[in-house]
Amino acid sequence: MNKEDFLGYIEDAYLNAEDIVAKKLLRDEEPLITSKFEFVAKSIINENKSNTHSALDKLMADCILELLKRDLGYSNSVSIEHIKKITEKGKAIIEAKNHDYADSSDPFANFRLVDNLEICTVEIGILVRMSDKVARIKNLSNKDNAVKDETIEDTLLDLCNYSAILQAWMVRG
After folding, report:
1. pLDDT at position 77
2. pTM, two decimal places
3. Which residues contact 127 (CB under 8 A, 6 or more apart)?
4. Under a CB-based contact definition with an 8 Å cutoff, are residues 138 and 38 in contact?
5. Angle at the Cα of 62 (from 61 to 63), degrees rounded to 5?
6. Rounded to an integer, what is the distance from CA 92 to the centroid of its chain?
7. CA angle at residue 37 from 35 to 38, to 5 degrees?
8. What are the backbone dihedrals phi and psi of residue 22, each rounded to the nearest 5 degrees, phi first?
9. Are 74 and 55 in contact (CB under 8 A)?
10. List of residues 6+ apart from 150 with CB closer than 8 A
């Protein structure tokens, strides 16, 4: 998968998440980030990938919902523009970080390193990064962050982005 295809797939993942967010807002659902991540992790570990894409979309949607909740108080005044603002920011971050961590011929170069060094598979490597983000979100829900240049909102966007990256990895050709 080249960089253009990678970014196209990231776009698709965010569009799927936006649709789920809109439906969850109508049903007034609360985000359940930890349980969604646990389902994704178990699906990957047990190699049950048939449900993983849907679960990753839902995890991304719950991260976006949490961001909306923090930004707007999760009120009925949430509009598609608010959702788009968050997803555009996430996509901009993923593109910039991909530029810094990988090359245009292989957008997964940095993630392949764990497999090349025989540490673990790429999927597990991405899950480890995601688990760090989930742990940080859980911890910062109860206290202020000591690292001031990375907010809980940044961490939620990172988790959203890792979810999209994992989906792109799983469908690479």
Report:
1. 62
2. 0.89
3. 40, 41, 44, 45, 166
4. no
5. 90
6. 13
7. 65
8. -60, -45
9. no
10. none
